[in-house]
Amino acid sequence: MPAADPVATHLPQRRLLYVARHGETDWNATMRWQGHTDVPLNETGRAQARALGERLRGKGIVAAVASDLSRAEETARIVAGALGVGLAYVDRGLRERQYGVFEGLTRSECETEHAEAWRAWVTGRVVPPGGEANEPFTARLIGSLGRAAREVEPAGGPLLVVAHGGAMRAMIATATHETPPMLANGVVWVFTWDGDRIAQAHEL
After folding, report:
1. What is the pTM for the complete model shown?
2. CATH domain 13-97+133-203 topology
């Protein structure tokens, strides 16, 4: 018999990814842009993470992966603990978009302190100074999803991926070609990863 094709044996597997937004932070509660700023969960956020763990029981999740920002990592650890699985790793590639001068501000403060940049964002989604452009933002997210789908053991089992609201909206838009409205803390979408892309996506 001919030898197995080494490329074919290492093709990415079809895999379910349960992608969740982290629990609430104090900045979420006051509607402040977080981006790459590392804001921890508050007690409401921890309760949301515990509720998420209960919701995901019975889904067969074998491991978790999270953004390296503490609000996502702590959410993942709480959920993984409830499910009796491990946190495989944290991944900087799953971070929220960097929002530059908007980070730490409310929307009204952005409008006051960075009026021109705010108008450009609201009217045309022009990235604020110091912010992260759409294409590299989306590329790093999809790359990180693919890495998780390929590398996390045991192979093929459903994974929990804990990320951020804006990041999830970009993932969903890539899969469905429609950008959903703002996502609540603790919301879950189910992605079917197939080969090198998200083949299907729906809210749990």
Report:
1. 0.92
2. Rossmann fold (3.40.50)
